[in-house]
Amino acid sequence: PRDALVSRDGKTLSELPPSARVGTGSRRRAAQLRALRADIETADIRGNVDTRIRKVDDGEYDAVVLAKAGLERLGLAERATQVFEPDALIPAVGQGALVLQ
Length: 101
Description:
D-Maltodextrin-Binding Protein, domain 2, alpha/beta, five-stranded mixed sheet
């Protein structure tokens, strides 16, 4: 389980301009993004994956962070400009866990 950044101009998180507006629907992701780049603005974003990406393309956000698996499921993996390592953006508790009995 990994998160991915989708930006307008193919930029990674470190390449985004100061005060870039990055959308996420997760407080966990927002806190971790601010730990990586204290100068960015994280903003709540709602809607399905297509809607969120359209908001980036339309300039409402400089980038958005989404689940990589969701992008892959929809055939949009090529839109990811950066895939975060799990130690950079820690996945939600229990995400990707499998239990056998």
